[in-house]
Design a protein that fits this description.
This protein is mainly α. About 85% of the residues lie in helices and about 0% in strands. Helix 1 crosses helix 2 and helix 2 packs across helix 3.
Length: about 140
């Protein structure tokens, strides 16, 4: 395994475990998920009642992404093509974090630094996932 392969696998496992934790917390412990995300991302929602209802379907999707990611990690050379879908997901997240950065700050009170830190982590994922796939084609 190359260094890119190892880093990709590490990123994928962290990405997957993160989504599983987010998913479980969002579906079953929505109020705690809000506090967890406040610590992780720095956001402070103005309204939580509707957010708690939204966290349940979002959490279900996060949980599914996490489980799929761990399945891919078990045999990354066989299922590497799924990394493109994860890279696409990260790209979408980067897009809305850039396009809606003012709204993210105004509504969620996420600082510019916290927003760009998350974007950087997502860019690293796109690079690793893309390089892994390119090396397999």
């Amino acid at each position: 395994m190359s260094i890119i392969d190892i880093l990709t696998l590490i990123y994928l496992v962290i990405f997957s475990v993160y989504h599983i934790i987010q998913g479980i917390m969002s579906v079953f412990y929505s109020e705690k998920a809000i506090k967890f995300n406040e610590k992780l991302y720095g956001y402070k929602p103005k309204e939580t009642k509707q957010l708690i209802m939204n966290l349940k379907p979002w959490g279900s999707l996060a949980l599914a992404i996490g489980v799929i990611g761990l399945i891919v990690a078990l045999d990354i050379n066989k299922y590497f093509i799924f990394l493109l879908a994860f890279a696409f997901l990260l790209g979408l997240r980067i897009g809305y974090r850039i396009i809606f950065r003012k709204n993210i700050y105004d509504y969620w009170q996420v600082s510019l630094w916290q927003n760009w830190r998350t974007i950087l982590i997502q860019i690293i994922g796109i690079i690793l996932f893309s390089l892994f796939v390119i090396n397999r084609l």
